[in-house]
Amino acid sequence: MGETPVSFEIDSLRIQQGALRWSDATTRPPTDVGISALDVTVRNVSLDQPMDIEAKGVLGAGGSDVSLRGRLVLPTATQPGVMDQLELTVEQLALEEV
């Protein structure tokens, strides 16, 4: 029996005023980075088509603005995922505060 592939399409997906935290206890000292006031919009959400992503937020305790734009293709059984047309902007980043 063959498997029927799952297919869906969502016009847009939004996250508003979210937060993201990344911790790595394997580093010395441990790394803990956060993004607050996170707004993310993903357009043309699909398992097998490119999706447009826009995200912005505030990085770290120093309050640096960060934004990201790009196009994402999810990985498949035969191909890796890809993010291209990537544009990353970070304003006034104090590395010691990240």
Write a brief caption for the model:
The chain has 98 residues and is mostly beta strands. It has no helices and five strands.
Description:
The protein is an all-beta fold. Helix content is 0%, strand content 61%. The protein has no helices and five strands. The protein has strands at 9-24, 31-46, 51-59, 64-73, 82-90. The model has no long low-confidence stretch (mean pLDDT 88).
Oligomer: single chain
Q: Any idea what the shape is?
A: globular
Distance N to C terminus = 52 Å
Beta-strand proportion: over 45%
Main sheet: which strands, in order across?
Answer: 1-2-3-4-5
Helix content range? under 10%
Q: State mean pLDDT (0 to 100 scale).
A: 88
Return residue spans where pLDDT drops below 50 for at least 5 consecutive residues. Answer: none
SSE series: EEEEE
**SS summary, helix count:** 0
Largest sheet: 5 strands, antiparallel
Radius of gyration (CA) equals 17 Å
Q: What structural class do the secondary elements suggest?
A: mainly beta
